[in-house]
């Protein structure tokens, strides 16, 4: 198993463990307070563990070796998991919006807010630790599933802070603050879901990589005197693998062996900047001599 696979799976497993702890703690807080904002956070964490489990198995599948039926590997399993995650988040957000709307119309006083504040504060610390680890893993692996999970949990951090504010407001009998915070959580969840879905769809539809990648290829190729130019550059990403295809122009009097050698040189240079890339070079003879 590669180091990227180990790191990505460790992040997914850590996410499952933290989600389980958060479900139990927020469930206790909600039972003691009947607060809409805590219910919203509890429901979000309940979906988190389901999504984290889906991510865990999707990541294991995504890192399985390429085979005869899947010669380009299984990396898009991560995109499918991320797309499923966005659907779960959106569904929970709309349900919570209905509950929060009812509480805005008929606000209710909150009880046992002291205990709930402590529980939510501990949940905040645990979520921050998880997000920091996920972001470190993403920086090392480029995993979309981990990035999507991290983005969601970062939304949880903001939501938990808002819930704590609502709990503190309960001591001054600001009863409308609890459902108002729940509405803000819903808005944050929907924004997160949209961003995750867009990135997942881009990868599933083989959206081109950042234009800077093409610029880097052209810049590197221009440093080689045997390479007269490059064209038909195509890029895409599947899982954490970046696929790059480049047509290189060589003078007709350049031997195939020399052209192949310079193509391998370009591949080596590109892998220095994009170590997870899969580069395919096509050698084109053109009119002209060196």
Task: Give an account of the 3D structure.
There is one protein chain. This protein has 290 residues and is mostly helical. It has two domains: 3-204, Alpha-lytic protease prodomain-like (Up-down Bundle), CATH 1.20.1510.10; 211-286, 2-Layer Sandwich (Alpha-Beta Plaits). The protein is 70% helix and 11% strand. The chain has eight helices and three strands; from the N terminus they run αααααααββαβ. The chain has helices at residues 3-33, 36-62, 76-105, 113-141, 144-170, 177-204, 211-222, 256-273; strands at residues 229-238, 241-251, 277-286. The protein has a three-stranded mixed β-sheet with strand order 1-2-3. The longest helix has 31 residues, at 3-33. The model has no long low-confidence stretch (mean pLDDT 78).
